[in-house]
Write a structure and sequence with these properties.
Length: about 220
């Protein structure tokens, strides 16, 4: 989804710029990229948010994309009950504590729309930075790996910022710990160094008021 949002924003901004460029706003958008226009930037923003909302709804219907794959098995048949993130429900906007309006949708779609905002407003500046570097060295493309598109960096300049944002967003607002199995927890504990494992065990005993033997 995050990679698709960046690609979609590139496409929608291009088509918006081609169709409406400099018809409403004559001022240049950015000196580093003289071919980009305000109409392309604004049109790409709104169309990317709409596309992200729609696309999130489509891919959340596929169990291959919403069910967790705990083993590396390309031929496994995935089947699960979709988590709350992928179920249509009433969502208070902006929050439960400060409720203004209720939106009926999948939380995944809300996350996708907010990531689309980042992909449309902030991520393109990765491309602007790449343009500044190329202008400083008086080159058009970083390489010629992809004919007509330049090198690998020319295609990935915006993706680096998007990758960082998605990681922070997932760890802060999306990741849930209520679906961890006992095996998942044991796997994490086994990876701990012995001293950290011993400290963790002592904290568990204190947490559940156990003196060494705990009853269920």
């Amino acid at each position: 989804l995050p990679c698709g949002l960046v690609v979609a924003n590139d496409c929608w901004a291009y088509f918006s710029g081609i169709g409406l460029g400099k018809r409403f706003i004559k001022a240049p958008f950015l000196a580093l990229s003289p071919n980009k226009t305000w109409e392309g930037f604004i049109g790409g923003f709104f169309l990317t948010v709409l596309w992200g909302w729609w696309y999130a709804g489509v891919i959340s219907e596929s169990q291959w994309l919403v069910c967790p794959q705990r083993n590396v098995d390309p031929f496994a048949s995935l089947s699960c009950e979709p988590g709350p993130l992928f179920e249509r429900q009433a969502i208070p906007i902006p929050s439960k504590e400060f409720h203004v309006v209720t939106l009926t949708a999948k939380p995944f779609q809300v996350h996708a729309a907010l990531l689309a905002v980042f992909a449309s407003v902030v991520a393109p500046f990765g491309g602007f930075l790449a343009s500044a570097i190329k202008r400083a060295y008086n080159i058009k493309d970083f390489d010629s790996l992809i004919p007509g598109h330049g090198g690998f960096m020319d295609r990935m300049d915006c993706q680096f910022l998007m990758l960082l944002c998605t990681n922070v967003w997932y760890r802060t607002f999306v990741r849930a710990y209520d679906d961890l199995s006992e095996e998942d927890l044991l796997r994490v504990i086994r990876l701990m160094v012995p001293s950290a494992r011993a400290t963790f065990l002592r904290q568990l005993l204190v947490e559940f008021n156990c003196s060494g033997v705990c009853s269920g």
